[in-house]
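Continuing the series of single-chain predictions for the mutant panel. This is the parent chain; the variants come on the following pages.
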Amino acid sequence: MNAIKILILLLFTTLVYAKILPVDNRVNKYDLLPHASIYIDNTNKLTIDEVQKKNIEFKENDKSLLGYGYSPDFTVWIKFTLKNNTNKSITKVLEYNNTLTTNIVFYDANIKYQDGLLYIDKSRKSLTPTFKIILKPNETKTYYLKASSYIATLIIKLNLWDKDAFYEKEIYHQVILALFFGAMFILAIYNLFIYFFTKDRSYMYYVLYIFGLSLHHSLYTGFSTTHYLDSSAILFLLEIAPLVITFPIYAIALFTKSFLSIEKQLIHNKILTFFLWIIPLSLILIFIDESFLKYRNILPLTLTVYLIYLTIYNAINKNRQAYFILFGWIIIFIAIVAMNLSSSGLFNLYTYFDYIIELAFVLEGIVFSIALSDKINNLQAERNKANMKLFEQQKNEKERLEIQVQEKTYDLKVALDEKGLLLKELNHRVKNNMQTIVSLLRLQSDEIEDEKYKDILKTIQHRINAMSHLHEMLYQSDNISHVNANEYFYTLIDELQDSFDSEIEVVLDISIELKVEQAIYCGLIVNELLTNSLKYAFPEKRGTITVKLYQLDNMIKLIVSDNGIGYDKSKKSNSLGLILIDTLVKKQFKGNIDIQSHSGVKVEISWDA
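Parent structure:
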């Protein structure tokens, strides 16, 4: 009987104290939730005093994780009791292992501590909400925790850590996440540069996917909410949470459509286009009516499954790119399913492997990047093949064109030879006609006794000879575009000197050739200027005339000067020769003329080359 009484007493004691968790410093981590009891407040109004004083029935819990999905209409109260089994004070860290819960309140006796997604203290360095627990030697103490989430899903996971072990874990965890986001950033930059060089939209869609995925995961892990975002930014992102969740899947759908050339597959293109239209409409509907929030994952998951089907279909049809990304799709599908199962509380994959999501995303990113690189290689191979074909076509075309060019060149040569002969013949005839006119003028001059008229006729002869000599040179030269100015001027000067029978020296300084049209006007100008000098500058028939023709930068300069007696510039002259010179310089050359008379006459003419 005594044994039975003792057994009953032990059983009663076990039932009473079953939920008391004894703690000490030898264990680094306790899974706290199975040692707690739960109460659901459907009114969302109970206070800590009411919970403690009213006869509220907390239900025992044996689960390590409680997932309630999207639950804005109730609050979960958690009650647990800890006992310090040592003779020393113990400091523990209570970790609420979910970064997305909106509001968390921890009650330590009469002290209230608040945390959660919208109440992140700037001094908090951990990604998850934490609360400090201090137990005196041999102390037994009951704690309460209230959790509610009116925007994100409500998932409850409680860990009780040794302080040093927790911060060691936290540093390691944040370093891993920093490496993950760094790797995703590098992948995004790499593909962005490829987009700028190739202008292939697939790469831009993939960059958008990486951006959306990184944003979603930084919120999911608490990395951005702890380190970068303030409360207003967090609240905004929470309000558009369905968009944040859907954006990477939408971007990857655009990527698939472009990368696998779904536009060429009529039926599949229509179905995928339907998804791309209906998903934005569904998001609008969710923002209008929050009751549709519980259905927000249906379309994205359905689209993901369909994208995997498209990849399998294209792989079966021997689309090379589909082989590469099929493995990537499987990885991302597993990751997305794991995240949604964890968010809904159905299955927590993190229990078995902490960083499976990060590893999946990095592997998927590497596989997709390899696929994109392979696409470049395929395009390059196709381009090389097309270039070889084009080269062959160009070679054949070149041979055909060379034959045509040879035929055309021969025809042109014949035509040019004929044209050259005709031009020479034309210049010869012009020269002969001018010589005939000069001969007639000489005959007429011999019959005239008036010296004034004889002088006029001689001047006309010189002007015609100036043009005649040019045509003679063109007739004799193979180059009919330019004239040897030195030879041309020498011929003009030699004839003028013979005509005036004087001992006046003419010095030539010619350094350029002239175009034919310039040579005609220059010949007339030089003829007039030399005639004036030979007539009027030297009464004693002795002196020097200098003719210079050169190019300075973009200007051609003609300078005719003598050391004769000069002339009186105050006397107005209506000489036809000077009028002719002025007209030729200003009208034909569009140039300038400057006449100076100091110890002789110097005429400087310049025009654009």
